[in-house]
Amino acid sequence: MDRAQSDLSLGFGSSHALPLPPPRIPIADDFDGPRSRRRALVDKDEDFEEDDDDQREDFILLGHPMKLKRSRPSSSTSSPTPPCKRSAIDSSLEARRSLVKAWGNQPLSEADPDLHELMQKEKQRQFRGIELIASENFVCRAVMEALGSHLTNKYSEGMPGARYYTGNQHIDQIETLCQERALQAFGLRHDQWGVNVQPYSCTSANFAVFAGLLSPGERIMGLDSPSGGHMSHGYYTPGGKKVSGASIFFESFPYKVDPRTGYIDYEKLEEKALDYRPKILICGGSSYPRDWEFPRFRFIADKCGAVLMFDMAQISGLVAAKEAPNPFEYCDIVTSTTHKSLRGPRGGIIFYRRGFKAKKQSINLNHCESNAQYDFEEKINFSVFPSLQGGPHNNHIAALAIALKQAASPEYKVYMRQVKKNAKALASALISRKCKLVTGGTDNHLLLWDLTPLGLTGKVYEKVCEMCHITVNKVAIFSENGVISPGGVRIGSPAMTSRGCLEQDFETMAEFLYRAAQIASAALREHGKLQKEPLKSIYHCKDIADLRNQVEGFASKFAMPGI
Ligand SMILES: Cc1ncc(COP(=O)(O)O)c(C=O)c1O
């Protein structure tokens, strides 16, 4: 079905209009049977109290002024309740009321000591360890406050000004503020770009774009997962298994990096795209340490008539701080997570072009010279809700608004610049120890360490690092003849930079990482191919314990934001 032609209009076309909500098909939680009955009972009580004043009698019991209500002889067949019984009923009502309310204000430690203890342990793990997973970060206290707030209580299906439920006047303002800040953080004009801040994650944001713009089975093309792409761009395993919703419901065909250089092979990409003719060409990935060449992507997308989409999940912070090439000049749609380098709450976001189309493509798209208009807005908004999601997570949207305000600040620019400097310092320190990095270094916040010359797999190395309280994650590595091996790890600088680490601290971390590799290689030599059990047995070995102590001592010197 062409969703955009559906007669169910949610006012997506103009987010500030206030159309009447459409009639709604009842869903389970709308069923009003018991509620109507309850309301009828309450109404009945209220009626009784209103016209019952002349039936009251004042008296004093044990020094306390009391009122006695006499039942109307005609309204009930039951006998009047004696005063002592009534006071017992009152106190049992109060007892019931306080029982019903008892859960409301307990701190977590009292309400659920088991969960509280687990959360405390996780806090300690985060504080005492070195976090080098490129996708992770630490949010600030303000973001945590918004996340853990009463905003989670409100249902607000729809868009600002066009919700299914009432009572959304403040939520509308929060979401509108968040949208405005999103445009501001990335320097976008309201007449050229729209934004949807409701996706629960970037995987859902990406899927919402595909589902909104394509029919099932239509073609997309993204960077292959082993080349550093993300599964949500449509991934099949080498055995042909469809892994993500994008590959299950759409047809996908990937482009790859050049195994000799680790850079995207643009020539092959062009050739493949012209043969395959995807409807959406996707740039962006999870493990690509170099800048994206947007003019080249635009050129190829135009040549094969594709919409150009960039998933900037990894580098959105760099883009906001103008520390990476600007995708908005060349792309039609830009998606992102909000919790990686952007340093906001966990979620997704979609930017889409609106207004008039540029006449000549392959050039900066901000110059409009034609009468044709983009039609992404209604399709994408409809796809997010109602096609794929339900009520927006308002606590998340508020927290995102805070993060986006920060992302537009001069301090955030300093932070992102430091993220890059730190990644470079880490890369240089590893290279000086003769470690091999894919592409020989990094342009952004992450680097890929090829462990194959050390005879290690990423899986073994990440386990050994975990034992030493360092978190990194395994990635695939291409050999020069194109064979893929699970021989690398991805290392990122945003999280430890948020804890205040500078270049020299990253040099220290490089030494820890190198030491962990030496320990892993030695253990491998000693135990042969490391399987689960031998790995377990080295947990208590002196080298691991020493390194773990050093790591914990080092990390504990840096405060953890937000707590
Ligand atoms: C490029 C890219 N897109 C999408 C995602 C998925 O994000 P989410 O976990 O919010 O679905 C990731 C996560 O690492 C990513 O790196």
From TrEMBL:
Its EC number is 2.1.2.1. It is an enzyme of class 2 (transferase). Its cofactor is pyridoxal 5'-phosphate. The keyword Transferase applies. Residues 108-512 form the Serine hydroxymethyltransferase-like domain. It catalyses: (6R)-5,10-methylene-5,6,7,8-tetrahydrofolate + glycine + H2O = (6S)-5,6,7,8-tetrahydrofolate + L-serine. One of its GO terms (molecular function) is glycine hydroxymethyltransferase activity. Residues 44-56 have a biased composition (Acidic residues). GO terms for biological process: glycine biosynthetic process from serine; tetrahydrofolate interconversion. Residues 1-87 are annotated as: Disordered. It holds the Pfam family SHMT. GO terms for cellular component: mitochondrion. The keyword DNA damage does not apply. Keywords: One-carbon metabolism, Pyridoxal phosphate, Transferase. SUPFAM superfamilies: PLP-dependent transferases (SSF53383). Residues 32-43 have a biased composition (Basic and acidic residues). Pathway: One-carbon metabolism; tetrahydrofolate interconversion. It comes from the Eukaryota. Belongs to the SHMT family. Catalyzes the interconversion of serine and glycine. This is Serine hydroxymethyltransferase.
